[in-house]
């Protein structure tokens, strides 16, 4: 099982799309293991986007992400990172395929509703930033697990 971070950005929260976005992940079979609504501090957002620090859009990106509440979610599943990124769609929502979150719900490159970790390394770093407490993520087994995966084939060991 793999864990990943998803952020419903301020535009998703302001537009009342958090429920629809979470529903898409849950309907796919991903398990929610952590969630919080916060207006995250500038320092945390700068650390989160530190890879873009030298880019000209860095200040506006941090400003946008700090402009309102964000919903941080930790999701778990087999290949969760790739699955989440596929469900999100291309960064530029106008170019995102229909059926993806951005393709169905977005029109902007910058206000593109969601962030998802792009690698296992990023996921580990990002989850530690947004869910730093040992008790902030929940280990649990959904009663639907065997209906989402072939337990005998995919969940061996």
Automatic annotation (TrEMBL):
Protein localization: Cytoplasm
Reactions that this protein is recorded to catalyse: a 2'-deoxyribonucleoside 5'-diphosphate + ATP = a 2'-deoxyribonucleoside 5'-triphosphate + ADP; a ribonucleoside 5'-diphosphate + ATP = a ribonucleoside 5'-triphosphate + ADP
Keywords: ATP-binding, Cytoplasm, Kinase, Magnesium, Metal-binding, Nucleotide metabolism, Nucleotide-binding, Phosphoprotein, Transferase
Requisite cofactors: Mg(2+)
EC id: 2.7.4.6
Main location: cytoplasm
Physiological role: Major role in the synthesis of nucleoside triphosphates other than ATP. The ATP gamma phosphate is transferred to the NDP beta phosphate via a ping-pong mechanism, using a phosphorylated active-site intermediate.
PANTHER family: NUCLEOSIDE DIPHOSPHATE KINASE (PTHR11349)
Family of the protein in this entry: Belongs to the NDK family.
UniProt subunit comment: Homotetramer.
Protein name as catalogued: Nucleoside diphosphate kinase
